[in-house]
Specification:
about 200 residues, mainly alpha, 9 helices
């Protein structure tokens, strides 16, 4: 009997959720592909009916997170202040991170300190996020409220790295700062204005 489309979508979703749990609990490299099928409660090896590899599972999980953040960035008008658009982007990322806390921490750690292979996988999958932030910054440069210290893509990577560092510090650091609710404002303010005193 042919499996209907809804059943396929449900199985695919179960495999992604299982991969998220497994990567968070065991780490990406220590998670065998069969563990994902087992956690999803499906036949061993079923994952290959939906994904070509463990790498593809990871890319898809990152892509989903990026889609949410990019959609939030799109929800703010193009002519809104750069600060408001960047904060909206972080707030959407944070909503995803709260629902997927363990996996969000895995992504943040890997982006900052992971090995080259996993960094490259996450970086490739996060390309739409980087481009969304770069577009926001490009518009800010055009309006004159963002300095052109580097190419927008390089500034975007710096902003995303800063945000991930603050996320880890707030969730895992000894002082737990900034609080999650403060993260969008703190990350955006530090990135756009640093810690310099306002000009007289």
């Amino acid at each position: 009997m042919r499996v209907n489309e809804q059943a396929k979508q449900n199985t695919r979703r179960a495999l992604l959720d299982a991969a998220a749990r497994a990567f968070a609990e065991q780490g990406y490299h220590r998670t065998p592909i069969d563990a994902v099928s087992e956690q999803a409660g499906v036949a061993k090896g079923t994952v290959y009916n939906y994904f070509t590899s463990k790498d593809e599972l990871l890319r898809e999980l990152v892509r989903e997170a990026c889609e949410l953040a990019s959609a939030a960035g799109d929800a703010i008008p193009d002519d809104a202040p750069t600060e408001a658009r960047l904060q909206a982007f972080i707030e959407a990322n944070l909503r995803w991170a709260r629902r997927n806390r363990s996996l969000a921490l895995v992504f943040a750690r890997q982006l900052l300190t992971g090995d080259a292979q996993v960094k490259a996988l996450i970086g490739d999958a996060a390309a739409p996020c980087v481009e969304k932030v770069a577009a926001i910054l490009r518009a800010g440069v055009d309006r004159g409220d963002v300095a052109t210290l580097a190419a927008p893509e390089e500034l975007a990577l710096t902003f995303i790295a800063l945000t991930n560092m603050l996320l880890l510090q707030g969730w895992e650091g000894p002082r737990r700062w900034p609080a999650p609710a403060q993260l969008p404002a703190v990350a955006t303010t530090l990135f756009l204005r640093g810690v310099a005193a306002p000009a007289a």
